[in-house]
Amino acid sequence: MKLSLVLGAAFVLSPLIVLGDFLPYEYGSFTTTCTNNTLKLNFNGNINIDKDSLISDSIECIIIHSSKVNFQDGCFDRLPNLKHLEVQVTSLYRNNVFNNGNFTNIVELKVSCIEKDYVTDLMLNAIYPSLEYLDLSDNSIRIQNSFAYSFPNLTYLNLSMNAISSAENFYSLYNLKYLDLSYNKLGGFKWKGRNTLLSLMLDYNQITNIGNSYYNTINLDGLYNLVNLSVVGNTINNISPYAFTDTVNLQILDLSRNSLTKLASSTFESMKYLKVLLADNNQFDMIPSMSLNITTLSLNCNIITNITNSSLVNLPKLRKLSLEGNNIAYIMPDAFQSQILLEELYLNDNHLSYLPVNWYKPMQNLRLLDVSGNKFSMLEFITQASDMPVTSLYVERNPLEFVQWSTFQTIPKNMTVYLNIGADRSVPLCK
Question: Rounded mean pLDDT of 183-192?
């Protein structure tokens, strides 16, 4: 047993959920792809680029920062290996980034503007026949015409943080796999294009329902290949029991920061491949009844009061369970009877004062337990026997006044206990 004392230091531990581990696609970014053979052009004023301005057989990436960029037709014809282009301008309205030029070889394009005081109507005239990755995030733009003519082979489209109110202009992007429309003005979403989408991000829009025929709803019909769906930060208060009937291949579902209070037990029946379910910051007063093969479940910052013997019985494949910041005061003795694979359990910032005898027995794979910020007055109410499998135990921010010498006889030899005396949470967990 190792005892760790951290005097007066603040310590915050949160479950690590790396969504990228589950996503089936990989795209380069300008920070990684533009490390070699890169040309950077920084101008305080305007720049004019014609077909004789840039000549190179080796340049793969160009980064341009200027007030205004004037691209002439054929301006990149003498750069046969150019694949990545990033343009930052003062205003999209006063620039012709998308109005001239036939950018034959470019695979990745990122365009951003500095001035965002007004909404810009983006009109597209240029053709990008090889473009697969397009990032137009944080530009305060609206889309007034179809993308299909300009981007016939686009697979990745990031339009987050703009002023888009409809997805209709993107249906004709027949190869699109990744679509990010977060932080826009969407009141609803229904995909009418080909069934190619793998990832759909609709965070922080104006959506209130999933799968119902109401206003402001998401309709997921036909999205058979969808793997990742995120609807964080809307005002969703209702999900139809049949909402996910077609999303049979979904692996990640993020419902966090909405207004959900309950879910029908049949809601997720069709999703046999779902691995991660996140529903933090909602209004659940109990763990929703579900039968799933998920490995990660997060219900942080709800109003759950207890964990019963039936709460988790149909979730036998869980490896990470996070219930931070609820009102949990009681855990029934057999609450974790089915969690034989569980490795990480986060119960911090609840109202627990004891754990039932032998509660951990089914969980011989449990390695991390966080009960920080509860009401435990004695360490023995947590560490009950020397056969407890936990190797990292976090108990800071509990009213522990002392640890009896006899306690050290029962604490497992391989367990590290983090007391973190004097620690306090400077930022509220569930603000």
Answer: 93
Q: Look-up: residue for tokens 């027995």?
A: 361
Asked if pLDDT for residue 30 goes beyond 80, the answer is no
Give Cα separations from 286 to 27, 295, 323 (angstroms). Answer: 39, 19, 11
* Strand-pair partners of 417: 3, 393
As to burial, measured by CB atoms within 10 angstroms (0-12 exposed, 13-18 middle, 19+ buried), residue 393 is: buried
DSSP sequence for 221-239: TT-TT--EEE-TTS---EE
**In angstroms, rounded to a whole number, what is the distance separating the alpha carbons of residues 370 and 134?**
41
Residue with the two structure tokens 């987050």: 160
* pLDDT tens sequence across 148-171: 788 999 999 999 999 999 888 888
Supply 342's token pair.
């569980």
Q: Provide the pLDDT for residue 333.
A: 93
- Backbone φ/ψ region at 32: left (φ over 0), alpha (ψ -120 to 50), beta: alpha
User: How many CB atoms neighbour CB 57 within 10 A?
Assistant: 9
Greater confidence (394 vs 93) lies with 394
Write down the pTM of the prediction.
Answer: 0.89
What is the reported pLDDT for 125? 78
Identify which of 370, 376, 320 has the alpha carbon closest to the alpha carbon of residue 348: 370
Q: Are strands 252-254 and 61-65 parallel, antiparallel or unpaired?
A: unpaired
Beta strands in 269-336 (DSSP E): 276-278, 296-298, 306-307, 320-322, 330-331
- The encoded tokens of residue 41 equal 């052009």
